[in-house]
């Protein structure tokens, strides 16, 4: 056999053939089928699967935020406040739909906290001012007022607390009629609903209603526009439990002989007057008279024999209030208006003694 290249049988290796000389030779081209519509759908589903968790997370977040905005039912509150809360809640929902919170979750949390604060304020104010059916007639809520009206005890209640149902001009006040007119105002919110808006600070504001004292042909109050302010910071909301407390004249601002209407008051005042008349002329007495040049913290000490008739009356009045249980009722009524920043302990000290430790 002649010497030279030895040829070996060909061996299959993958898609290529190897020649006997070791040189690679490309195998015949493979045939591919044309993609079908089903293939396209399958590919799209595979691509969408890459974003499935992200999409699901976004939908879950949307559901969560919807539940946070609308999940809780609004409790008992006045009609005007219910409309205001709904207005603000819808505003937040619209912001979410517009994408304003997508990259600002903290903003959503802050706005949601404000919404919840509005709801809490509206519900608490309703309970504080309107009261509940279990009242006993000893408070100033609308429910208390209705109970006293049924019992015919309004005048007695206010006199026991140191007041007369009378305005500054001396005109008598019917507690129930006054409270009923006030209820209409409060239930409407005390603001113009058409003026509601979200201001640049994100606060829910509107224009206050100011009662002109006039009525239209249907007997309805005529209001004028006041200043614009946060709906839940308006003065009547700040009145809280005293929203339905009518205008009154303090008994303490007059002498007892001017206002005492029954024998109980007259008898006690007379006993104090007798003790003053029978006191030795040189006996010192202390009473409230801030106009006196010698007064210290509003109080002045003088001898009985040197007292004018007006000073005698002031002394009798002071002694009555200092020694009668009614004075604690009176202090309980005025303490929150006179000293709104007192602690619970200081408040009780004032009610019991007329003084408190700073």
Q: Name the average pLDDT.
A: 76
Reading the helices and strands in chain order gives: EEEHHHHHHEHEEEHEHHEEHHH
Sheet with most strands: strand arrangement: 1-2-3
Radius of gyration: 41 Å
Give the oligomeric state: single chain
Structural class: alpha+beta
N→C terminal distance: 128 Å
Task: Using the alpha-carbon principal axes, give the shape.
Answer: elongated
Strand percent estimate? 5-15%
Helix amount? 40-55%
Name the poorly predicted regions.
Answer: 4-9, 13-24, 253-262
Number of domains: 2
**How large is the count of helical segments?**
13
Q: Tell how many strands the DSSP assignment holds.
A: 10
Query: Biggest sheet, open or closed, and with what strands and sense?
Result: 3 strands, antiparallel
Describe the protein in words:
Helix 3 runs antiparallel to helix 4. Helices cover 47% and strands 13% of the residues. A 3-stranded antiparallel beta sheet has the order 1-2-3, with no helix packed on it. A 3-stranded antiparallel beta sheet has the order 5-6-7. The protein has a two-stranded antiparallel sheet with strand order 4-8. The protein folds into 2 domains: 62-253, no CATH class; 256-353, no CATH class. Mean pLDDT is 76; it is low at 4-9, 13-24 and 253-262. Strand 6 and strand 7 (221-230) form a beta hairpin. It is α+β, with helices and mostly antiparallel strands and 358 residues long. The chain is built from 13 helices and 10 strands.
